[in-house]
Amino acid sequence: MTVNGRPVSIEVEPDEFLADVLRDRLGLIGTKIGCREGECGACTVLVDGDAILSCIYPALKAEGRSIVTIEGLTREGELDVVQQAFVDAAAAQCGYCTPGFVMVVRALLDRNPHPTEAEIEEALAGNLCRCTGYYQIKEAVQLAVERLGAGGGAP
Amino acid sequence: MTAGAVGESVRRVDIEAKVQGRRRYPQDFSLPGMLHAVVVWAGYPHARIRRIDPSEALAVPGVLAVLTHEDVPVNEYGINIYDQPVLASDKVRWLGDRVAVVVAETLRAAERARDLVRVDYEELPIVDDPLEAMRPEATLVHEDRRSNLLKHIYVRRGNVEEGFAAADVIVEGTYHTPFVEHAYLQPEAGLAYIDDEGRVTVICAAQWPHDDLRQIAHALALPLEQVREVVPAVGGAFGGREDISVQILVALAAWRLRRPVKMVWSREESIRGHGKRHPFHMRHRWGATKEGRLTAVEIEAVLDAGAYASTSVPVLENAVSFLAGPYAVPHARIDGYAVYTNNAVTMAMRGFGATQPPVGYELQMDRLAEALGMDPVEIRMRNLLEPGSIAVTGNRMPAVTSARETLRAAALAAGWREEPQGWRRPGASILRASHLRRGIGVACAYKNVGYSFGFDDRSTAIVELALASDGSIQSALVRCAAVEVGQGVTTVLAQLAAQTLGLEVSRVRVALTDTAATPSAGSSSASRHVFMSGNAVVKACRQALEKRDAALREESGATRIVAEATFRGHDVRRTTAYDIVDGHCEPHISYSFGTQIAIVEVDIETGAVQVDRLIAATNAGTPVNPRLCLGQVAGGVHMGVGYALMEEFIQQKGQVRTARLSEYHIPTVADMPRELESIFTEVPDPDGPYGATGLGETPTLPTAPAILNAIHDATGAWITELPATPERVWRALRGVPAQPAAPARRPCP
Fold first, then answer.
1. Which of A87, B332, B681, B709 maximizes the CB count within 10 A of its CB?
2. Do B492 and B620 sit in the same domain of this protein?
3. Share of chain B above pLDDT 90, in %
4. Residue B515 pLDDT > 70, yes or no?
5. pLDDT of B606 above 80
6. Which of B21, B185, B488 sits opposite A128 (nearest CB)?
7. What is the pLDDT of residues B533-557, one digit of tens each?
8. In the predicted model, is pLDDT for residue B33 greater than 60?
9. Do A87 and B185 touch (CB under 8 A)?
10. Same domain, residue pair B425 and B564
C-alpha cells in the first residue's frame, strides 16, 4: 500500500485493523480511536479517496491501496484548505474528533466541491463531536467550499 | 493597542496542531520497554470476593504480573473521602470496581491473561433504586455504615404553611432525570514511568492534576514529591475526569515493576469505569399569588450517589441551593438526599448539581404561568433574583447579577414584546404539515462560578518575563496548571496576560501542565478558570510589572523577572457551609446566568421532536474571546439537547445496557437545533478579570427545560421524565403509561 504517497510494505495479522497499523506500526498517531465500532468517526482516513473508518477496516484489505491520513494533508508545512478553514472557524475544541472530521470533509469536497447544506450535514452526520455542537464545524466546511470555489488551495 | 487582548477572537493557541493531528493525547505516548496493563473488572454489581487466583493468567507467556489489592500499599482513594478501593479486596459494589491489573509485555498477552484471572464471587443482593435504598431494611452498599443515606441537606426559610396559605394557586409536579454519560471522545488512557529524578510520573488526562497527585501518593504511600503528573492534550472532560481513572493503576504497576506501563481503556471500559451525572427524583410544590409572585416552595430531591461517594456531597450541596431556581421566594422547605446504591458512581458533569434542578423549577414556573393565565416571560420577570435579593439560603445576592438581562435579551430575540401590561409572547407561526405541532418554551437558569460552601478555592500562577536590555518585555511565560480540556483556557489566560502586560498575545506562552513545574490552579470545573486562574494570572502579571519597574529604577540590568501570585475566592466572597439548623449560608463565590428559548416541532404521529431554533442568552461578563465563548455555548447546547431528547445511561439490575456509543446516543449534527442564536449580555462581573467570568456550564442548564416547555406549548403534554424520547412523547400524547418492564417512578419519600 501507499501511505501519504509513500510506499509501505509490512506484514499484518488477519485480525489487525488499519487504525492500529497506522498508529502503532507507522507512528501516525493523528488517526484517533474513539469507539472501535465505527460509530464515532474519529479514525476516518481516505482509502483510494473514500472516507473509511479505519478502526473497523481490516488492515489486510489495504493491500495495494492508497491511504491518506491527517498527516498526509499538510504539504511542506502548508495546511490543506480544509485544515485552514477549521483553524479560521475555530472548529476544534478538545481536538480529538478533529482529524476524523477534516478527513470526512476532504473526501466530501474531493467528490463534490459545491455541496448543499443538506449534503454537508449528511457527510458530517457519521462523526461525533462532544465539544462544539457542530456549528463551527459547519462554518468551517462553508469556508472551505468558498475558498475552493475562489480557486484557492485545491490539492 | 495590544494585539490579541481581551475581547478579541484570537486563534486558539493549540488549533493548528490539532487540525494536523499533531497534538498528542495520553494514548499517543509510548516509551521504550513499555509494558501494557489491562483491568480485570468486577464480575457483578454487588458480590463478596472469596478468592482471586491469578495462576493461570501468570502462566501466559509475556505476563509479568497480576496485581491485586495485596499489592496496593494503601488500598483506598476518592476525591472527597477515601472510600474506593484501588483494587477490590473483600467486596465489589458496582461494575466499575477494579479487581486486578494484568501487566504484560504485549497488549495481546495482557488481554488474553485477563480472561484467565479466576475470581470466586459470592453474589449479594443489589440495591439499584435510591428510594428503595433509603428504607431501613435495605441491603447496605457499605456495611460499615448504618444506612445507605450518604447525606441529607436541607433549607428552611420562613414558614411554608404560611406561604401556601397566602397562595392563590398551588402547582405540584414530580420530575425525573436520568444517569448521563460524559461521552468525551478520548477514552481514558495513561502512561506511567519513573522519571530521571526518581518520581513516579503519570501522563494522563485530568482536570485537577494536583488532586490526582494527592490520591496517587496516598495509595502508593509515597511522599508527594515522589509523584508527578503530566497532562498533555485532553480529549474532553466535562467533569468526568475529575475523579481518578487509570492514574493509580498505571502508577502502581510502574512503581512495582520499575518499567513504563501503559493502559488504554476501550469505549466500553470508559463507559463502565467512570462515573455519571446524578439522576434526580424531584418533587415540587409551589404556591403563588394571582399576581404571579411566589409565596412558598416545598421541594424534595433524591440523588442516586451510586456505589461510592465521589463528589456526591458537594453536588447535593449545590443542588439544594439551586432547586428553587433563580427566584426570590419568602418561604421555602427544601430537602435533598444523596443515597448509595450499586449503580454507577455518580460524579461531576457539566453543571455539578445545577443541571438537574432547572428540569423541575422551570417546568414549575410554566405550570404556574398556565394556572394563572400569565405569560411565561412575565411571570419569571416578577420573581427573578435581583442584585441584593435574598436567596433561599438566606444570603444576599451580589450587587451585580444578570438574570434579568439574559431573560430580556432572549425574549426580545424570540419576538416577545414588552407592553404596558407586561411581556407578551409572539403569535403562532405557520405549520409545515398537519402532523406537526409547533411550540415555544422559555427557561432561565443559574450556576455558581468557583468552589462553594466554605471551600477555600484558590489558583496560583507564575509569570516569567524575558526583558530586553532597555527593560521592555520580549516575551512572557505563564505557568499555571489550569488544564486545557478543550474549553480554550490556555488561549484565554494568554490573552489576559497579554492585556495586563501590554504585550502581543503571540509573545505569551502558557506552559503545559506538569505538576513538577506548574503550581496548582484547582480543577478545570465549576466554570472557574477564567474567574479564578484568570485573576491569578492578572495578579501575577501586575506583580511582575512592579518588579520590572523596580529593577529598572535600580538599574539592576535584570533580564528575567519572575512573579508568583495566588488568587483566593474568599477575597471576593467568603462562602460558608449550610447551617445545621436552617441551612442558611453564603453558598457561592460568584454566579453565571443564562436564559434559553426553544422553538420546537413535535411530530404527533411519531413523538419525534426537532428543535427548530434555539436562542441562548448567556452572561459571561465581558467575553475575553467571543469566538471561544460561542464554542462553549454551542457545546453546552449540544449537551442540553442530548439531555432533553436522547441521552440516558441505562442500567438494569446493575448491568450496563448502554455500553457503547451505538447504544448511548449523543446528538449528531442532524439532531442539533437547525438554528442557534447566541447572545452575550455582557454585564461585566466586577470581581472577574477585566469584567469576565466563567461560562463553561451555564449554557447547558436551560436547554432541556426550554425544550420541555416548548413541547408542552406545542402539544399540551408535560414530559416530566428525561429524555423526551419519541416513545415518551408519543405515550404522553396518548395518555399511555410506560411499559411495565420499565421501573415505576414513585414520588419522593
1. B709
2. no
3. 95
4. yes
5. yes
6. B185
7. 999 999 999 999 999 999 999 999 9
8. yes
9. no
10. no
Rounded to whole angstroms, how far apart are CA atoms B552 and B656?
A: 65
**pLDDT band for position B736 (50/70/90)?**
confident
Domain holding B323, by residue range, is 276-384+396-452+577-734
What is residue A151's predicted lDDT score, i.e. its pLDDT? 65
**Domain end among B217, B236, B264:** B264
Helix (H) or strand (E) holding A51: strand A50-53
A32 vs B668: CB contact, 8 Å cut-off?
no
Does the pLDDT of residue A155 top 50, yes or no? no
Bond prior to B723 in cis (omega within 30° of 0): yes
- Mean pLDDT lowest for which of A70-79, A126-135, B422-431? B422-431
Contact yes or no for B220/B255 (Cβ under 8 A): yes
Which one of B517, B552, B571 terminates a domain? B571
User: Could you tell me whether strands B655-656 and B473-479 are parallel, antiparallel, or unpaired per DSSP bridges?
Assistant: unpaired
- The answer to whether position B131 is within a domain reads no
Give residue B742's pLDDT band: very low, low, confident or very high (50, 70, 90): very low
Interface test with A, best of B8, B20, B272, B625 (most A CBs within 10 A): B20
Q: Is B224 in the same domain as B253?
A: yes
Residue B150 within any structural domain of the chain: no
3-state helix, strand, coil in chain B (%, to 5): 25, 25, 45
Mean pLDDT value of segment B77-93: 97
DSSP string of B542-560? HHHHHHHHHHHHTT---SE
- Please judge whether A73 and B20 are an interchain contact, meaning their C-beta atoms are less than 8 angstroms apart: yes
**What structural domains and CATH numbers belong to chain A?**
2-72 (3.10.20.30), 81-149 (1.10.150.120)
Q: Which residues of B touch A34 (CB under 8 A)?
A: 185-187, 267, 661
Judged by a CB distance cut-off of 8 A, whether residue B487 touches chain A is yes
- DSSP strand pairing (A66-68 vs A44-47): antiparallel
Residue B328, domain CATH: 3.30.365.10
- CB contact (8 A) between residue A39 and residue B661: yes
User: How far A16 CA lies from chain B's nearest CA (Å)?
Assistant: 11
Residue B54 is part of a domain; what is its CATH number?
A: 3.90.1170.50
For residues B419 and B432, give the distance between their C-alpha atoms in angstroms, rounded to a whole number. 30
Cβ of residue B593 closer than 8 Å to a chain A Cβ: no
A&B contacts, CB < 8 Å: 165
For residues B436 and B497, membership in a common domain is answered with no
Regarding whether B489 and B531 lie in a shared domain, the answer is yes
Which residues in chain B touch residue A73, judged by CB atoms under 8 angstroms apart? 20
B contacts of A44 (beta carbons < 8 Å): none
Q: How many domains does chain B have?
A: 3
- The answer on B723 and B666 residing in a single domain is yes
* Contacts with B23 from chain A: Cβ below 8 Å: 95
From the list B9, B186, B669, which residue is nearest A96 (CB)? B186
Report the pLDDT value the prediction gives residue B357, as an integer from 0 to 100: 98
Whether the predicted pLDDT of B748 surpasses 90: no
* Residue B345 in domain: yes
Domain-located, residue B338: yes
Average pLDDT over residues B511-521: 96
**Angle subtended at Cα B351 by Cα B423 and Cα B347, rounded to the nearest 5 degrees:** 155
| B372 and B420, same domain (yes or no) | yes
Percent of chain B, pLDDT > 70? 98
Cβ pair B668:A95 closer than 8 A: no
pLDDT at B744 over 70: no
**Residues B487, B436 share a domain:** no
List, for residues B234-271, the tens digit of each pLDDT value: 999 999 999 999 999 999 999 999 999 999 999 999 99
Instruction: Evaluate whether A145 touches A109 at the Cβ level (below 8 Å).
Output: yes
